[in-house]
Amino acid sequence: MVQTLTVLGLESSCDDTAAAVVRQSEDGQARILSSVVHGQTELHSDFGGVVPEIAARAHAEKLDVCVAQALDKAGVGLGALDAIAVTAGPGLIGGVISGVMCAKGLSAATGLPLVGVNHLAGHALTPRLTDRVAYPYLMLLVSGGHCQYLIANGPDDFVRLGGTIDDAPGEAFDKTARLLGLPQPGGPSVEAEAKHGDPGRFRFPRPLLDREGCDLSFSGLKTALMRMRDQIVRDKGGLTRQDRADLCAGFQQAIVDTLAEKTRRAIAQYLANDPADPVLAVAGGVAANQAIRQALETVCAQTDTRFTAPPLALCTDNAAMIAYAGIERFRTGARDGMDLAARPRWPLDQTSPAMLGGGKKGAKA
Ligand code: KG4
Ligand code: ZN
Predict the structure, then answer these.
(1) Predicted TM-score (pTM) of this structure
(2) 91 Cβ below 6 A of ligand 1
(3) In whole angstroms, how far apart are CA 307 and each of 43, 152, 274, 314?
(4) Do 176 and 194 belong to one domain?
(5) pLDDT tens digit string along 116-126?
(6) 301 and 218 belong to one structural domain
(7) Cα–Cα distance, 308 to 63 (Å, whole number)
(8) Is residue 88 classed as helix, strand or coil in its secondary structure?
């Protein structure tokens, strides 16, 4: 490690406008000096999903406020920074452009180097920021917009083992909650209902288990749930509290079983290269689900793989992860110029075939 680096990060690829300052000292220890996140949930709540134009406008209005707050909270001026890191994709393009333009403006005005960061790399490198996890580690991103298994070999070196071919699991939880009249975000409300439900009463499919590899599919689960719900309504005229709890429990169990099996396969592929200190890191809002977490921890225990999950505030979208990923890229010599492009799609692993689909929160890879 050569020098202490202090980097400002900007994030605006979905519905959170965020800025953060992260400092990594010579010994490699990174500290979050500030992390400011302005969510937009209420702006989109009437529309059942993120409206890209509204998101982009809100980002453009909020970014400079976030930057000022992040610098203020960190107690540093622009002069104390070594670089500016910004999410350059993948995501909703209007929002990504807002962030990239803001970062270019700051870079042009101060002469500070600019580093474009892949939003997914930000998530995937977070276990190094929080726990100094060593490469290579296995990463499972599970959120409302992402779902993929990655082997992280370096800041720009990821191998994707598989991912969802349609909905992300968080999206499936949110849609399920909507179908059952439960509040958003759907994950916590479905999980709470599932606690007093019988997971065996309704038989949900276990998507893609019959197919080799680690790809996942979740969109069929909500369709199955809708059919079951409609059948109950036809038979009995409505849903009881117990019906709803049983549907939630069956749905959640299907996700748990599928993720457990696919994780077992991903770990087997990862272990085939004999990593010195095998680690599975999980990030994303869905990692908050206790049943999913427990199942993943069990798989890890069975395969002598350490389980780690960053604190929830760093699992969800934030700019500290972008600043940290910027630091790692900066140390490899990466610099971007005024031609840095905002990219709606940007797979972390350029060698694997592209994944299908784009969820309510934008492109999946
Ligand atoms: O990572 P995140 O905050 O945002 C992005 O998607 O980028 O993830 C939010 C997603 C939502 O879909 C939410 O329903 C889901 O994570 N989630 C959960 C739980 N808590 C949040 N899903 C299942 N169980 C939970 N306890
Ligand atoms: Zn994200």
Answers:
(1) 0.90
(2) no
(3) 36, 15, 17, 16
(4) yes
(5) 999 999 999 99
(6) yes
(7) 31
(8) strand
